[in-house]
Amino acid sequence: MRERYLIIAAFATVYLVWGSTYLVNYLAILEIPPFLMSGTRFLTAGLLLFGVAALRKIPLPTLAQWRNAAWIGLMFMALGTGLVVWAEQWVDSGMAALLVSFEPLIVVLLLWVMRGKSPQLHSLLGVALGVLGMFLLVGQPQIAADRDTLIGVGVIAMSLFAWGYASIYIGQANLPKSKMQSAGMQMTCGGIWLLIMSLIFGDYKQFEWENLTAQGIFSFFYLIVMGSLIAFSAFNYLLTKVSPEKVATTNYVNPVVAMFLGWSLNNEQVTTRSLIAAAIMLTGVFFINANFGKKQD
User: Fold this and answer.
1) 52 alpha carbon, distance to own chain's centre
2) Which residues of 256-276 are buried (b: 16+ CB within 10 A; e: fewer)?
3) By the 8 A CB rule, do 175 and 68 touch?
């Protein structure tokens, strides 16, 4: 009985917290430049996870494992997540979450290109629905006519390919067996990459301590504690307790949570066409997730 309640609590945490991070990221970058904010967030969370792993006497990683973590951290954290946060300067948080829900479809296509793994019929149907939904979403006049929004959408598309590539690459990468240590390494390296990007693009120059409010501070620490530590731990717990297709429901619950929060708390516009596009895209994601294993919990 206790385990059942823990599983329910873990699902609620992943659904609500990861769904909320899109809005919280937007609130954070109102006061802290996106690359600086994301880099500091991941570096802090990564060092905390790595430190806990060290306290548990987990053997230190090898140099080869650090190299792989640096590459995956670049793909996952710096490009996969950091670019999405950067794009939220112009793309509504709910729309960003919906665009990110396209990720499973990108993975199917990349598996086809990178490994020659031909998708099954229902996966192809999912891809077709996803493309249709994306066309309806991005083709709306208020989006298509706004140059900055289109650039933001394009940057999110780049992030999806980076994340998809890393999702495939990580399966064969030499990384520590400890998921906590591995995640800590990836976050630490990703944070360093993002801080380098902050230096290169100069967004750190936009940060001013005197403009930092309680909202910005709360948002930053919420992303570290709730987004990176607690929700990540809940996600990994679920992977060990329930079937993959149930864990994969995050792909179509998180965007709904993000859209609702953006609409209710940030006055983000949700048009009828956006809702139709969301329904079509998330149906496509459902068909992709139906391709996961037959394992039952």
Assistant:
1) 23
2) bbbbbbbbeeeebebeeebee
3) yes
Distance (Å, whole) CA 41 – CA 46: 8
Could you give the CA distance from residue 36 to residue 194 in angstroms, rounded to a whole number? 7
Cα distances (angstroms) measured from residue 130 to each of 10, 104, 124, 183, 186: 28, 10, 10, 30, 29
User: What are the CA-CA distances from residue 132 to residues 88, 195, 255 (Å)?
Assistant: 23, 36, 17
Q: How many other β-carbons are positioned within 10 Å of the β-carbon of residue 150?
A: 15
What distance separates the 2 farthest-apart alpha carbons in the chain? 56
Cα(33)–Cα(204) distance, rounded to whole angstroms? 6
Tokens of residue 161, six digits: 């390919």
Query: How high is the pLDDT of residue 219?
Result: 97
pTM of the complete model beyond 0.90 = no
Report pLDDT for 179: 86
Q: Is residue 98 a contact partner of residue 46, using CB atoms and an 8 Å limit?
A: no
Q: What is the pLDDT of residues 6-62, one digit of tens each?
A: 999 999 999 999 999 999 999 999 999 999 999 999 999 999 999 999 999 999 999
Give the residue among 156, 223, 175, 172 at the shortest CA–CA distance from 73. Answer: 175
What's the whole-number mean pLDDT along residues 274-281?
A: 87
**CA-wise closest residue to 38 among 80, 90, 99:** 80
